[in-house]
Amino acid sequence: MQVEVWSDVVCPWCYIGKRKLETALSRFAHADQVEVVWRSFQLDPSIPEGHTEATLPALAAKYGRSVEEMAQMQRRVVDVAAGEGLEYHLAEGVSGNTLLAHQLIHLAADRGLGGAMKERLLHAHFTEQRSVFDVDSLVALAVEVGLDADEARGALVDMRYLDAVHADIATARALGATGVPFFVVDRAYGAAGAQPAEQLLELLQRAWTDSHPLVTVPAAEGCEDGSCAV
Question: Most exposed among 8, 55, 145, 188, judged by the fewest C-beta atoms under 10 Å?
């Protein structure tokens, strides 16, 4: 069974959603037969590559809120994240274009390290306040999960996975995703937002049941209840 997750590495609810999915999988009887695939989605592709900005005032301006109002909303997210065991520092956060980061995840996935790379980027951004927006910073993080530095740098400089990222984003639109995280199981069942682990578990169980119907085996001919007694 395949679970695809569209998300962005600068989306605070996406990291929370990742933890909720992991909790659901820990309770799912067939978790060893589930493949999790991390798909690309950009919350703000309009940010120029190489440009970074303080997240808090940028969000306040985008949504027409005061900086204090937005800070209060962020504190709520920080509390929710803490409930999932995550340490966020949103007030001092920085945002930028995540196109390179998504390409790095695709490279890592080709080397069997997609999940590890996704986790490392999220943790670097939200907990360590490390940059995930430039080649040098991304290569350093790639090496930490076991990727080759020269290969990672070459892939990012050459934009080798650009088409793959764009394909993910186009697929998300085709599936009706307007925000993230967006979970899709076997391209047949979907859930949007950082759903509770219980609901994600129900989604997994429903998809498994529907794809593995019980087979009724006809009873063999024979004697029952003494009907062959002599």
Answer: 188
Rounded CA-CA distance 198/196 in Å is 5
Spatial CB neighbours of 6, under 8 Å, sequence gap ≥ 6 = 39, 40, 41, 168, 172, 177, 180, 181, 182, 184
- What is the phi/psi pair of residue 186, to 5°? 55, 30
Which pair of tokens denotes residue 60? 């306040």
What tens-digit pLDDT sequence spans the chain (230 residues)? 999 999 999 999 999 999 999 999 999 999 999 999 999 999 999 999 989 999 999 999 999 999 999 999 999 999 999 999 999 999 999 999 999 999 999 999 999 999 999 999 999 999 999 999 999 999 999 999 999 999 999 999 999 999 999 999 999 999 999 889 999 999 999 999 999 999 999 999 999 999 887 654 454 444 444 444 33
Please answer whether residues 173 and 41 qualify as being in contact, where contact means their C-beta atoms are separated by less than 8 angstroms: no
- Judge if the upstream peptide bond of residue 48 is cis by omega within 30 degrees of 0: no
Antiparallel, parallel or unpaired: β 52-54 and 35-40: unpaired
